[in-house]
Design brief:
InterPro entries: RNaseA, RNaseA-like_dom_sf, RNaseA_domain
Family: Belongs to the pancreatic ribonuclease family.
Keywords: Disulfide bond, Secreted, Signal
Strand order of the largest sheet: 2-3-6-7
Strand content: 25-35%
Number of strands: 7
Shape: globular
Helix content: 25-40%
Subcellular location: Secreted
CATH class: Alpha Beta
Main location: secreted
Structural class: alpha+beta
CATH superfamily: Ribonuclease A-like domain
Number of domains: 1
Radius of gyration: 17 Å
CATH architecture: Roll
Order of helices and strands: HHHEHEEEEEE
Length: 136
């Protein structure tokens, strides 16, 4: 009985269903990269992912599986500073920066490239924050 209780407690702490984990996935993970008609990837994604009302200034989407991003909290990342982790590998990332608004619509500049990323992980080893200040 004690083993079952302990297992349930551990699973609840590492569950990807945690609201902080889900927010990270919604805001920063897009794998495989979503195909968008035309050239408006950022505008479309920011709207779909509920970051365009109000317009979020900067956001990055990492085009890697959840398992690869979670691994940065462990063996696939290194301590960077304070409580940040730096990915050991470069990942495909699209960064969206707000250019302004037009007729109530957010207009974004986008850049896709390969780079290392900085994330913050919780104590259970799940990503909870993408560090935007270190892009490009």
């Amino acid at each position: 009985m004690l083993t079952l209780l302990l297992t349930c407690l551990i699973r609840s702490q590492v569950s990807p269903q945690n609201p902080r984990h889900e927010k990270f996935w919604r805001q920063h993970q897009d794998f495989p990269r979503t195909k968008v008609a035309g050239q408006n990837y950022c505008g479309t994604m920011m709207l779909r992912r509920r970051m365009a009302r109000p317009c979020k200034d900067t956001n990055s989407f990492v085009h890697a599986p959840k398992s690869q991003l979670k691994d940065i909290c462990g063996w696939a990342g290194t301590h960077y500073r304070r409580d940040l982790r730096l990915s050991k590998e470069q990942l495909s990332v699209t960064t969206c920066k707000l250019q302004g608004t037009s007729h109530g619509q957010c207009r974004y500049w986008s850049h896709t490239g390969q780079r290392q990323i900085h994330i913050r992980c919780d104590l259970s080893g799940w990503p909870i924050r993408f560090e935007e200040s270190n892009f490009m």
